[in-house]
Specification:
- With 299 residues, this protein is an alpha/beta fold.
- It folds into 2 domains: 103 residues, Nucleotidyltransferase, domain 5, CATH 3.30.420; 155 residues, ATPase, nucleotide binding domain (Nucleotidyltransferase, domain 5).
- Helix content is 38%, strand content 21%.
- It has 12 helices and 12 strands.
- It has a 5-stranded mixed beta sheet with strand order 3-2-1-4-7. Strands 10-9-8-11-12 form a 5-stranded mixed beta sheet, sandwiched between helices. A two-stranded antiparallel sheet has the order 5-6.
- Helix 6 packs antiparallel against helix 8, helix 7 packs across helix 8 and helix 8 crosses helix 9.
- It is globular, with a radius of gyration of 19 Å.
- The relative contact order is 0.15.
Length: 299
């Protein structure tokens, strides 16, 4: 059986049809029409995929925000137009394309992809953390995606510097260890460079860039340590544009986990292996990762 999968981002929409084994059988990528009052471009993409000769029987949409699983709707997504909210419901999308639809937080869907088909394969308890423009996470325990009424594991908002928080300064995992944080810290120290440029300079042994990156590296280690204590995973898989720099980040995170992480636990640390396809591929395993998928996704 094939499944329709969409990764809805603020700048582009990535769609695919997958086999049950996660194989990408067909792919379509389009810009996100964020100037539109309604997500008509998303509906058009999904209709085209639903009408494909491979005939998907269900659709999974990964969205960049909190999902209300009880109501089957997007709760909040700061990078999408506010006017799209009433249209981003499972019922509305299913009526528009003619097959059942399930909405899932994009980090949750990527976590399922990495757990079943990527770097977390073979582990039961997997924490996937993405460090990119922001910081997000998805958690699987016993190979089941951890959700309640709403999507969970908003680890980017954990406060990791209480003193800074008290002063009204950046203090969360996301504010201190994301690509956005890297660029902000660089600017504050007189470096007019993007996050990617700072990383390149670190690899070239530029002292000023290394000092900036060290601040982010320390914050990342603390954030991952807190994730380890919160969920006791067997493995932490680190992805995202910034997080994929494993050679620059993993040694510090590994040392911090070994020194200050959960006692008597050896938590593996791995680089995400599926890249941008993690969320798309996660759709193929969602039925196994979400116990109520059959009841909700095929109603």
């Amino acid at each position: 059986m094939t499944v329709l999968s969409v990764d809805l981002g603020g700048t582009r929409m990535r769609g695919a049809i997958l086999g049950d084994d996660g194989a990408l059988l067909h792919r379509d990528v389009r810009p996100t029409p964020s100037d539109d009052l309604a997500p008509t471009g998303l509906v058009a993409l999904m209709r085209d995929l639903a009408a494909h000769a491979l005939a998907p029987k269900r659709a999974i949409v990964g969205v960049p925000g909190r999902v209300d699983h009880h109501e089957g709707r997007l709760d909040r997504a700061p990078n999408l137009p506010l006017s799209w909210g009433p249209h981003l419901t499972e019922r509305a999308l299913a009526e528009a394309i003619g097959i059942p639809v399930r909405l899932v937080n994009d980090a949750d869907l990527a976590a399922v992809g990495e757990a079943f088909f990527g770097a977390g394969r073979g582990y039961s308890d997997v924490a996937y953390v993405t460090m990119s423009t922001g910081v997000g996470a998805g958690i699987l325990l016993g190979r089941r995606l951890l959700v309640g009424r709403r999507s969970l594991a908003e680890v980017g908002h954990m406060i990791i510097d209480r003193s800074a928080h008290g002063r009204g300064e950046p203090s969360t995992f996301e504010e201190l260890a994301s690509g956005t944080a890297l660029a902000r810290i660089a600017k504050a120290r007189g470096l007019a460079d993007s996050g990617k440029e700072i990383v390149a300079k670190v690899r070239a042994n530029d002292p000023a860039a290394i000092a900036v990156f060290d601040a982010v590296r320390v914050a990342a280690a603390i954030g991952i340590r807190d994730v380890a204590f919160a969920f006791s995973p067997e493995i932490v898989v680190l992805g995202g544009g910034l997080g994929l720099n494993d050679d620059l980040l993993h040694p510090a995170i590994r040392a911090h986990l070994d020194r200050e992480g959960p006692p008597a636990m050896q938590i593996a640390l791995a680089k995400a292996s599926l890249g941008d396809d993690a969320g798309l591929m996660g759709a193929a395993a969602l039925e196994e990762a979400l116990p109520d998928f059959a009841a909700r996704g095929r109603a």
